User: What shape does this take?
Amino acid sequence: MHGFRTVAHTVIGSGASADIASHLTASVRAEVRRVLLVSDAHLLSLGLLRPALDGLAAAGIDVISFTDVVPDPPEQLALDCVALARREKVDAVVAIGGGSSMDLAKVAAVMAYPDCTQSITALYGVDQVDGPRLPLLLAPSTAGTGSEVTPIAIITTGETTKAGIVSPWLYADVALLDPALTTSLPPQVAAVTAIDAMVHAIEAYTSKIKKNPLSDQHALSALTLLSTNILPACKPGPPEQVRENMLLGAMLAGQAFANAPVAAIHALAYPLGGHCHLSHGLSNALMMVPVMRFNLPYCAPLYAELARHLALVPVAADEISAAQALIDYIESTIASLGIEPSLRAHGIEKTFLPTLAGDAMLQTRLLVNNPREVSEQDALALYHEAW
Ligand SMILES: [Fe+2]
Assistant: This one.
C-alpha cells in the first residue's frame, strides 16, 4: 500500500507573484491582513519582490519583511524570523526565495501560530510538529530544491551539523511558480540547483522503501522537463518558457521525493555542505555519479527504464548498457554545465575524507532509502572516487 501527499493548490505562470493575496486567501478561505514575507537581500535588491509587495499592498495587506535569509540558515536566524512574526502578530507567511527562505517560512508558520508552545528543538525529527500553523504560500526563486512542495525544513544547528523537521504540517497551502522570479538566476546557480532537482527525481525513482506509482510518474515527468531544458536554462538569459519548464520540473521532482525520499547521494552530499560549505546543489553534483555507479548493480533495471524514458538508448538496448547510458548522460551533463566534478578542485583535503564518511553515516534518515546498503567503508570509497 502506498500514499501520496502534496500541496493542495499550485499556481503556475509568469507574473503570478503579483497576485499572491488572491491565491492565498482563496486557498485558505480566510481573511489575511498581515503577512510575513521571508526572502533574501539579493532578491530584494534585484527588485524581484516588487510585484508581490505592490500586489499585497493593493489588496490592503500589511507586509512585514524578513529579508535576512542566508544559505544553510542557522537556528538563531530561524528564531529571529519567528520572533518577528510573533511580535508583529502576522496572520500568514509567504516566502519568495530559494530553499533556505522557504524552509524558514515553514518554521515561522508553525511557531508563530498563536497557540504554538513547541520550541524549535522539539520540532526536529520526523512527525514531531503538533500544528496547526499559519497560512503558508511558497514561491521558489530557483529551480532546484522543490521545497515549495516538500514537508521538510533543514536548519543548521551547529558549526557543521544540520537538523531536519519533517512533518505534514510543513506542506504549504499554496506553491506558486512564477518564472519572472528566476529571471536573474546566475548560470552557475541555475546549473547546480538543476542537478539537485535531477538527483531528487532519480533518487525518488530508485527509493528503496516508499517508491510508488505516483512518485514514479512525477519523477519521470520531472526528468523529461529537466533534461530537455537544463542546458538552455543554464546559459545567460534563458527564455521564459525554459525557466517555467525548469520550475515545473523541479516541483515535480520535489513532489516525487516528498513521497519517495532521497537517499545516499544526499546523505553523502550533506557533510560537504556542513563541513566545507559547498552549496547543496554542488554537493549533490559532486557525489551523484560515484553513488549512481555504486548503486548500479542494485538498480540497473530502474536506471535502464529512466534511460529508455529519456530516449538515451535504442529501445532494443540491453539493460546494463541502458543503465550505464543514464550514468554517462548525467556525467556528460555535469561536464557540459561547467561544473568541476572533483572534490579536490573545490578545496577538500584528502585527509578530510574519513571525517566526511563518518558524518555521512549519521544521515540514517536518508541512507535507509538507498537501494544498496552503504557502510562507512563504502562511503569513504565513494568520497575517494569523487576526490
Ligand atoms: Fe536536494
User: Anything to note?
Assistant: The chain has two domains: 9-182, 187-386. The chain has a mean pLDDT of 96. The longest strand covers residues 92-97. The radius of gyration is 20 Å.
